[in-house]
């Protein structure tokens, strides 16, 4: 049985400025987004994107992730708490970012940028989708470092069961790392390999929606359920409620892309 290391939430002190691990993980995620995007542009010179457009788009992505992620946390998961503590809504360095809220923010950013660029929403989504999972993995590692979003109680015989001292003395699943592996690394490999060949418009986006939704649904069985707007349940969690429409939308988009190709 392992003990969570209880990391100092501050990664670097530079004079009066402190860089928190959570923020550092987001910076790493955005850096990987740019690096992987440049590789895709080089591998697919006919993709219609330039390095400059990718750099410009990152600004839109950052705004979508941060604003959408924080508002999602406030509205989906802890509306009562933030209603009583409105001053903490902007305290993102303390953690508390909703993926599903961030996804809505990024989808809005994709729609606006696609319109500016003169391409369809799905064309932009298909290019962006393979670049996202490594950032998701970085975010989950940030959750682990913060010791937040801990897992459900596990058997003490599980070799990697971990005690999170700030919670209790019970062995738990390190669900943050499960999610980093599933929603991050595994989804990245699937999308990266799938997107190497030309696909009908919308299919790469469909794989992202189905893949993330399914992996998140599975991982929620090992994560302590969050109390959200639908209450707290061990049967179906808030994360699973929010992931179900993603899976359905992915299936619908996949079917639509096939029908459009064969029409």
UniProtKB/TrEMBL annotation:
Annotated membrane topology: Multi-pass membrane protein
Pathway listed: Protein modification; lipoprotein biosynthesis (diacylglyceryl transfer)
Entry keywords, A to Z: Cell membrane, Lipoprotein, Membrane, Transferase, Transmembrane, Transmembrane helix
Cellular location(s): Cell membrane
Cellular component GO terms, alphabetical: plasma membrane
Residue ranges crossing the lipid bilayer per the database entry: 19-36, 57-77, 89-114, 201-219, 240-258
Single GO term (MF): phosphatidylglycerol-prolipoprotein diacylglyceryl transferase activity
One GO term of the biological process aspect: lipoprotein biosynthetic process
EC supergroup of this enzyme: transferase
Entry's EC annotation: 2.5.1.145
Record keyword RNA-binding present: no
Positions annotated to bind a 1,2-diacyl-sn-glycero-3-phospho-(1'-sn-glycerol): 140
UniProt-listed Pfam families: LGT
InterPro entries assigned to the protein according to its UniProt record, in alphabetical order: Lgt
Family membership noted in the UniProt record: Belongs to the Lgt family.
Its job: Catalyzes the transfer of the diacylglyceryl group from phosphatidylglycerol to the sulfhydryl group of the N-terminal cysteine of a prolipoprotein, the first step in the formation of mature lipoproteins.
Name of the protein this chain belongs to: Phosphatidylglycerol--prolipoprotein diacylglyceryl transferase
Organism: Formivibrio citricus
Gene: lgt
């Amino acid at each position: 049985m392992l003990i969570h290391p209880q990391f100092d939430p501050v990664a670097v002190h530079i004079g009066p400025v402190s860089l928190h691990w959570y923020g550092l993980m987001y910076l790493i995620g955005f850096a990987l987004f740019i690096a992987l995007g440049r590789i895709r542009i080089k591998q697919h010179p006919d993709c219609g994107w330039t390095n400059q457009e990718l750099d410009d788009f990152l600004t839109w992505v950052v705004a979508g992730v941060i604003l959408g992620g924080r508002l999602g946390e406030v509205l989906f998961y802890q509306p009562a708490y933030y209603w009583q503590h409105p001053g903490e809504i902007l305290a993102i360095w303390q953690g508390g970012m909703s993926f599903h809220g961030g996804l809505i923010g990024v989808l809005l950013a994709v729609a606006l940028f696609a319109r500016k660029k003169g391409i369809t929403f799905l064309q932009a989504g298909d290019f962006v989708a393979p670049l996202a999972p490594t950032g998701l993995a970085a975010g989950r590692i940030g959750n682990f470092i913060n010791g937040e979003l801990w897992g459900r109680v596990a058997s003490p015989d599980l070799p990697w069961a971990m005690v999170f001292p700030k919670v209790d003395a019970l062995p738990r699943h390190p669900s943050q790392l499960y999610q980093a592996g599933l929603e991050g690394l595994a989804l990245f490999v699937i999308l990266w390999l799938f997107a190497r060949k030309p696909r009908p418009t919308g299919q790469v986006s469909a794989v992202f929606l189905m893949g993330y939704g399914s992996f998140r649904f599975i991982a929620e069985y090992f994560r302590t359920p969050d109390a959200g707007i639908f209450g707290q349940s061990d049967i179906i969690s808030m994360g699973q409620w929010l992931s179900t429409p993603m899976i359905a939308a992915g299936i619908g988009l996949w079917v639509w892309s096939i029908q459009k190709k064969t029409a």
